[in-house]
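Data availability (excerpt). The following record was deposited with the supplementary files.
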Amino acid sequence: MKIILKYFPDLTEDQIQKFFSLIELYSDWNEKINVISRKDLDNFYERHVLHSLGIAKMVDFEPGSDVLDVGTGGGFPGIPLAILFPDVHFVLVDSIAKKMKVVEAVAEALDLKNVEAKTGRAEKVKGKFDFIVSRAVTRMNKFIPWVRHQIKKDNKNSYPNGIFYLKGGELAEELSEIKQDYEIFDLDKVFEEEFFETKKVVYVRLNES
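Predicted structure:
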């Protein structure tokens, strides 16, 4: 937990308690359903929670925003972001039902009323969203067609509506394949741990209005 407070010192007591509870919840569920590797569980707060919150170092979602987390797996980045932004509505989707069972259980245990879990394909999720978030589900030129029809027209945040994508490594070739405007934020600018040396948040604008 110390690493979360190091970079997010202004958390409320309720938020601190929720973040603190995450490791026990995921450890218990991991014994039943393998959602996190053992190695990553040993570095849970750095590699899953703080990594997810890297998006919050790029954008501060406005209250009332709607965010879709595609390919959430066990709930990342959606669950940590939902704790940090309690006034933002998050829909977490994944095609693997057993992982969504974990997401539902964690959200219920933490009383995250701003989280909605859905099992299935992202393209089938009904509704419109200000932003899509995800952790490296596929190449961007494949990801964009899945979600571009789900973006709202009207902007209310500091960034126009679009995608915030957690990726690692060299991205020039991959991003040369897309036509949309994008911006890359290097997480090693804000997080000093070695894990973040090659980690980035990629923002892609999908609202052309």
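Summary of structural features: The two ends are 41 Å apart (CA to CA).
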